[in-house]
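Researcher: Structure for this, please.
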Amino acid sequence: MGEMMTDDMELVRQYARDKTEEAFAALVSRHVNLVYSVALRLVRDPHLAGEVTQTVFIILARKAGSLSPHTIVAGWLCQTARYTSAKALTQQHRRQQREQEAYMQSPLNEPDSEAWRQIEPLLDEAMAELGEKDHNALVLRYFEGRNFKDVSTALGTSEAGAKMRVNRALEKLRKFFARRGLTFSAAAVAGAVSANSVQAAPSGLAATATAAAVKGTAVSTSTLTLLKTALKLMAWSKLKITAVVTAAALAAVGTAIFTTHHLVPAVHRWHAERPAPFAFAGYATPESSIQSMLWAGSQGDFKAFMAGCTKEQSERIMKKMAGKSEEQIRQQAIAWADSLKGYKITGKETIGDDEVHLHLAAKPSPDGLRDGKVVVVMVKIGDEWKQAGDL
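Model: Predicted structure, token format:
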């Protein structure tokens, strides 16, 4: 196990230097189950999870020469899988080929424990909230089952330091779930994640991914599009991902992360020093749609707020609202809007005719928006712009 820890990056360097297929195949074989499991939790479709897995390893092959010698390969792969999965969901929505209902009826969605059943939908969001070292510590310890000696070697610390890092990160995970009403002990969380977080990838996927990454064998058009957009996103954000999915920040919820093209700076005045001046502006433009959603929140009109979201985004929000009364939801929307003393659009990216990314800054930061900033993804459906998620 310790040998595997030390030579992941040696294999990466060997492949980058000599383009050795055997070295890359070894990397894929070691980590294909991990990548596939992250993708499956997020996209909830075994076929699409396989496509994401293949794309992630193509990205690894292309970036092998640029990775830092100190990279924790397993952690890097987890983050890349989250980016790619989110983009894959966007493409899938556009192709209208989602198979959510069929997946929900499959045995893959029958976990071994009550804790896992409740933790599983939120696990990758929780992991994305962690700092890099905490994230890598948990991936190594509980996703890959490494001992503390291996973890300490990878993190460059003592075994005692590794244990402390893992325990602190596990406690952060527990608190994350607790804030969402899931009151499990740290031990229960650790046990559920260790037992269920990684499952076997489909037979043949490792060989297919290796061939696509190393030999450049033919891949589908959707995979090529996914690869292109995921690489652009990674270059722009430098693999620092925050999935902001909180009920308090209703206008900035969701797990979808989308591609970037050229950022067009935009300087706007601060809007609405108090929520009262917000006015309904329709949905004809991305900017007016955002303003209409803010207006709906300030009025406590949850139905009007949801009218500014895509169907998939509405479903995600409703899942977060499960168990709350209509009055609780209304009050939460009002409280969120009231926390916005002002906002401005600091940038606008045109991704295509039907997709735009708006960079928003809030003053002060509403609950859930780190540093008071968020990138909101807007998509055009018919003649109206709807919110599809955020970065």
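Researcher: Any notable elements?
Model: Strands lie at 263-265, 342-352, 355-363, 373-381, 384-390. The first helix runs from residue 2 to 18.
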